[in-house]
Amino acid sequence: MSSDVRTDSSRSLRAGFRQWRARRPFWGGLLLALAGAEILLTEKASLKVVMHIGMQGLAGYLLPTMMLLCGLLILFNPAQRLFYSLLGILLSLGTWLTSNLGGFFIGLLLGAVGSCLTFGWLPDQKPRRRLLRRGHA
C-alpha cells in the first residue's frame, strides 16, 4: 500500500514538473545556466591549463556570472525570455575574450545554443506531432 502512495506521489510530481517545464524555454535556460557555471569553473583551473586572453580580473568573472543569472531568469521569468536570450548570446560571445576562450569553447557553445533555443521558443504552442508520415507527404 505504501509503495502505491509513493508511485502516485512521484507520478504527480513528475506531471507537475512536466507542466512547469512546458510553460517555459526550459532547455535553453538550463543550457545557458550550465554554460555560465562551466565558464566559472574553468576560471579556477590551474595555471598550466588557464589561457587567459584579453581582459583579466573582474570581467572574467562578471560575464559568466551574468550568464548563469540570465539562465536562471529564463527559467523562472519566461515572460522576459527575448531580452535574456539576447543578453545571454552577447555575454557568451564576450567570454571568448575574457574567460579562457569561453571556457575552452564548451561554455561558449552551450551558451550560444541555449540562447538560440530560448530566442526561438514560442509560448502557447501546441505540442508538435509528426506532420509528415510515410506515404502522406
Strand-helix topology:
Layout: H1 2-22, H2 26-42, H3 58-76, H4 81-98, H5 100-104, H6 106-120
Helix pairs in contact: 2-3, 2-6, 3-4, 4-6
Gross morphology is: elongated
| Assembly status | single chain
Amount of helix: 55-70%
Number of helices: 6
N→C terminal distance: 50 Å
Overall average pLDDT? 82
Strand content: under 5%
Task: Characterize the main sheet.
Answer: none
Unreliable runs, pLDDT <50, ≥5 residues? Answer: none
The structural class is mainly alpha
Count every beta strand, where a strand is a DSSP E run of 2 or more residues. 0
Write the element-wise H/E pattern from the N-terminal end onward. HHHHHH
Describe this structure in words.
- The protein has 137 residues and is an all-alpha fold.
- 69% of the residues lie in helices and 0% in strands.
- It has six helices and no strands.
- It has helices at 2-22, 26-42, 58-76, 81-98, 100-104, 106-120.
- α2 runs antiparallel to α3 and α2 packs antiparallel against α6 (106-120).
- The radius of gyration is 19 Å and the shape is elongated.
Question: Which key terms come to mind for this protein?
Answer:
single chain; mainly alpha; 6 helices; elongated
Tell me briefly what this model is.
The chain has 137 residues and is mostly helical. Helices cover 69% and strands 0% of the residues. Helix 4 runs antiparallel to helix 6 (106-120).
